[in-house]
């Protein structure tokens, strides 16, 4: 209910002190009570599982590696405290208080900002599309890990069994398995290729597993997260123990402990964006999860717990990752040296195993001194451990290329491969819960679900729709499209949404009202730290990060790295510019989700200016504080 | 006397002749490279004259096996240019005429045929007992009828489908039980219906005029 018009955007405080009564828990069209968590542990595990995703394993260690662990942790922790935790607390609090999904919540706070909820839902929808494709890739690798030998450990033979496949020989077996056997990637984006049936099968499996966890809503999710949220920690610990015993682990771990002066301003931007995307705010999923809570729940503790555990997981995951990367660098270094040793031994007919890795330098110097021309004719490779250590990779490159290569050299490769991919699968699946929840709950709250349709059927329809749309990522050029979605949908729209979220709550809803709500829920008012963050620091940081991110993106030319076997410099990837129509799609992907924010505001303005208090306004902003049904009618005198 | 001199010459000349036939980069010879320590590590045996004799015998066996007609002997395998690597060159002479060398191609065929036996005789492999110029045939890949990943996929998707069906059926059964329970309650309600006031289970919160406090304000 609005006190008129466009001048005053605040809602009346009517009914606040009465406190909400039980009936507003109900869904509006059925008399079913709102679902709620079985116990607090399920709720916390779900939130932690949502926040802790594959990015904690394959993005954070990469950033530590390129900036130096010690140097990166400082801006990372500062961003966590001043940007991540306030946003997290805010989302959990408003979800718990207003007891609705993202669209309902933002409609309640201000009808003009209802677009924020719509934007959240659209972005969650797009992210669900490509995120589950990554889960499908993980499943594919998991299925293939049950073989001896691992299929990415050696090159396959060509047609007439005379030699190995040329593409594999020129690059590496691991690269070949990823680009050819998994993706069957096309040389550029214009060539779409065909649907890869094995990818479709994996994608169907991924969506089926997501569906089975969503069948009964949070009842089944709550059971599933006992496994999906805790299993990664078990695997990380196993890997930690194993990795620390591998040779070369120590050299890899040095990266975590390098301290450098924070010269590069880019490190602040990367830290802020990393903490922001890592916590999964602005998806709407966290709002949905906390809306199923009891109102008298201490969401301040929950927020701090989830945020701290998320960052701790990132740091904890870096240790085995770096150890394994160090092991891989060491293995590469030793095999490079062994290649040189073999060449020298064969050419100079030196006794077998006289030249070893330890005395290689002395032998090389003495042979080079006596027969320099012969030595140079051998074209020995320069083997530098530091070069191998500096090779870094993030994202799918880390998981499917670097790590799979390291696993081949570990004894008992199948076990480690299976464990690793199950861990990635659990991480991805628990994040998918939040992604999909950010789509389903607003649709329920918008009352778009016909009354005759049971929830299971509705969830099935949404999953089927998402699966069919995600089939574009199963084409030959699917990986290129996924990168586009990842960079353009999974970045700027979130920053914009989060910025509007915090402005809405801090300035439009009012920090005073919000403090009252928090007092009602947690029993005490928020202290000065939270207030200062919500009012000043977090919006400022978000704004600066948004502007800086857009500026950096604008400076990087819109290109992509294509895998083209016919390229001159193959196995290097060919850098191609985006075609114009693809670039137009990129711009659309960035802007369409957030365009709902101004659109809904304008629409509400027009409605309000024309003076219509239509039924829609009552329908769309179910203000829990104004309940006309209990107005006491004055008796007529 | 003359006969004795000729005999002496033969004794001296034959090895010299043999040496001429076998030399580094001989046109019909092959270089062999053996890496004992790489293959056997601690259990590596020492490469001495007896091993060389064994190699000659193995090669003679390979030649016999391939040609099947002629009788090759250890004398027909001539070794030279030994290094400590261990590597050496060898040539094969014809059993009928010791000055005639068997062509390279025939030797290659013989080696290819018996490669596995030669390797096993020395406890080595294709990689550690190399005949330079004779490339080992690549092992044919093991192609199972059903790819293993398909089996794992089948298990997973089967379990998921069973789970989905089970959960859907149990949801349906739960709903039916609830509906049965509710209709039974509804029937009881109708029986106990009190006139006037309907205190329903429905939680719509519609205004119930029965509870208006009309008497709050005294009438004038």
TrEMBL record, chain A:
Binding, Na(+) 2: 49
InterPro entries, alphabetized: Na/ntran_symport, Neutral_aa_SLC6, SNS_sf
Family, as annotated: Belongs to the sodium:neurotransmitter symporter (SNF) (TC 2.A.22) family.
Source superkingdom: Eukaryota
Main location per the UniProt record: membrane
Keyword Glycoprotein in record: yes
Binding site for Na(+) 1: 51-52, 56, 278, 310, 427, 431
Pfam families: SNF (PF00209)
Swiss-Prot/TrEMBL keywords: Glycoprotein, Membrane, Metal-binding, Sodium, Symport, Transmembrane, Transmembrane helix, Transport
Keyword Transmembrane: yes
Single GO MF annotation: metal ion binding
GO biological process, one term: amino acid transport
Sequence intervals crossing the membrane: 43-60, 66-90, 111-143, 195-214, 226-247, 267-292, 304-325, 415-436, 457-482, 488-511, 532-552, 581-606
Gene: SLC6A18
Cellular localisation: Membrane
Protein name per the record: Transporter
Protein's membrane topology: Multi-pass membrane protein
Cellular component per GO, a single term: plasma membrane
TrEMBL record, chain B:
A Pfam family annotated for this UniProt entry: Collectrin
Subcellular compartments: Cell membrane
Keyword Lyase: no
TM region positions: 149-173
Membrane topology: Single-pass type I membrane protein
Gene Ontology CC entries for this record: extracellular exosome; plasma membrane
Claim: Cell membrane is one of the keywords in the record: yes
Signal peptide: 1-18
PROSITE patterns found in the cross-reference section: COLLECTRIN_LIKE
InterPro entries per UniProt: Collectrin, Collectrin_dom
GO biological process: positive regulation of amino acid transport
Protein name: Collectrin-like domain-containing protein
UniProt lineage: Eukaryota, Metazoa, Chordata, Craniata, Vertebrata
Gene symbol of the encoding locus: LOC112251097
């Amino acid at each position: 209910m609005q006190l008129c018009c466009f001048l005053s955007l605040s809602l009346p405080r009517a009914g606040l002190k009465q406190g909400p009564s039980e009936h507003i828990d109900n869904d509006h069209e059925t008399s079913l009570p709102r679902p709620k968590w079985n116990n607090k542990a399920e709720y916390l595990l779900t939130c932690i599982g949502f926040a802790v995703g594959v990015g904690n394993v394959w993005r954070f260690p990469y950033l530590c590696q390129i900036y130096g662990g010690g140097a990166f942790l400082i801006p990372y922790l500062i961003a966590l405290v001043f940007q991540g935790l306030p946003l997290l607390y805010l989302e959990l609090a408003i979800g718990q208080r207003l007891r609705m999904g993202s669209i309902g919540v933002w409609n309640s706070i201000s009808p003009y900002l209802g677009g924020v909820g719509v934007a959240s839902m659209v972005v969650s929808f797009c992210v669900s599309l490509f995120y589950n494709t990554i889960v499908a890739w993980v499943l594919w690798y998991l299925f293939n890990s049950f073989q001896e030998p691992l299929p990415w450990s050696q090159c396959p033979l060509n047609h007439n069994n005379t030699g190995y496949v040329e593409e594999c020989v020129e690059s590496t077996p691991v690269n070949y398995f990823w680009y050819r056997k998994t993706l069957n990637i096309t040389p550029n984006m214009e060539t779409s290729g065909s649907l890869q049936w094995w990818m479709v099968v994996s994608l169907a499996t991924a969506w089926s597993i997501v569906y089975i966890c969503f069948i009964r809503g949070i009842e089944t999710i709550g059971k599933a997260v006992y496994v999906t949220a805790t299993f990664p920690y078990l695997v990380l610990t196993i890997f930690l123990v194993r990795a620390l015993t591998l040779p070369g682990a120590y050299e890899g771990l040095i990266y975590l402990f390098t301290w450098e002066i924070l010269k590069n301003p880019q490190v602040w931007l990367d830290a802020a964006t990393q903490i922001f995307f890592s916590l999964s705010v602005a998806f709407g999923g966290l709002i949905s999860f906390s809306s199923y809570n009891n109102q008298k729940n201490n969401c301040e503790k929950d927020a701090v717990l989830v945020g701290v555990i998320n960052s701790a997981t990132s740091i904890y995951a870096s240790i085995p990752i770096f150890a394994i990367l160090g092991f891989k660098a060491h293995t590469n270094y030793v095999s490079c040296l062994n290649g040189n040793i073999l060449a020298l031994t064969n050419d100079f007919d030196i006794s077998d195993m006289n030249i070893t890795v330890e005395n290689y330098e002395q032998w090389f110097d003495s042979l080079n001194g006596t027969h320099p021309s012969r030595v140079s004719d051998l074209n020995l490779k320069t083997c530098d451990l530091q070069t191998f250590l500096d090779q870094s990779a993030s994202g799918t490159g880390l998981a499917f290329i670097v790590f799979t290569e390291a696993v081949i050299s570990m004894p008992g490769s199948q076990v480690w491969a299976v464990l690793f991919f199950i861990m990635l699968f659990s991480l991805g699946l628990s994040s998918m819960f939040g992604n999909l929840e950010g789509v389903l709950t607003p649709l329920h709250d918008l009352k778009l679900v016909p009354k005759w349709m049971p929830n299971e059927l509705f969830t099935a329809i949404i999953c089927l729709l998402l699966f069919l749309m995600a089939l574009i990522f199963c084409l030959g050029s699917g990986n290129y499209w996924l990168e586009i979605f990842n960079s353009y949908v999974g970045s700027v729209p979130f920053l914009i949404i989060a910025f509007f979220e915090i402005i809405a709550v801090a300035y439009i809803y009012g920090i005073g009202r919000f403090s009252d709500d928090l007092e009602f829920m947690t029993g005490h008012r928020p202290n000065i730290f939270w207030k200062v963050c919500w009012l000043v620091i977090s919006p400022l940081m978000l704004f600066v990060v948004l502007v800086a991110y857009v500026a950096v993106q604008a400076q990087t030319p819109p290109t992509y790295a294509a895998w083209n076997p016919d390229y001159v410099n193959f196995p290097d990837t060919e850098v191609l510019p985006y075609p114009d129509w693809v670039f137009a799609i990129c711009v659309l992907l960035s802007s369409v989700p957030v365009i709902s924010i101004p659109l809904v505001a304008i629409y509400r303005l027009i409605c309000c200016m024309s003076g219509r208090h239509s039924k829609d306004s009552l329908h769309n902003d179910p203000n829990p504080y104004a309940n006309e049904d209990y107005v006491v009618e004055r008796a007529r005198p | 006397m003359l006969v004795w001199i000729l005999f002496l010459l033969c004794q001296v000349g034959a090895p010299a002749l043999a040496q001429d036939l076998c030399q580094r980069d001989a046109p019909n010879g092959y270089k062999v490279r053996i890496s004992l320590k790489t293959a056997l590590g601690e259990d590596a045996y020492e490469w001495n004259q007896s091993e060389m004799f064994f190699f000659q015998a193995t090669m003679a066996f390979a030649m016999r096996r391939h040609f099947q007609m002629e009788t090759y002997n250890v004398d027909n395998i001539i070794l030279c240019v030994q290094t400590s690597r261990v590597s050496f060159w060898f040539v094969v002479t014809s059993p009928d005429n010791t000055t005639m060398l068997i062509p390279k191609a025939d030797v290659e065929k013989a080696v290819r045929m018996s490669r596995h036996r030669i390797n096993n005789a020395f406890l080595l492999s294709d990689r550690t007992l190399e005949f330079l110029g004779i490339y080992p045939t690549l092992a044919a890949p093991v192609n199972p009828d059903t790819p293993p990943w398909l089996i794992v996929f089948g298990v997973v998707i089967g379990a998921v489908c069973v789970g989905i069906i089970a959960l859907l059926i149990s949801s349906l059964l739960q709903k039916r039980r609830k509906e049965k329970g509710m209709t039974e309650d509804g029937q009881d309600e109708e029986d106990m219906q009190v006139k006037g006031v309907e205190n329903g289970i429905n939680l719509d919160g519609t205004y119930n005029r029965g509870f208006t406090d009309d008497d709050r304000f005294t009438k004038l």
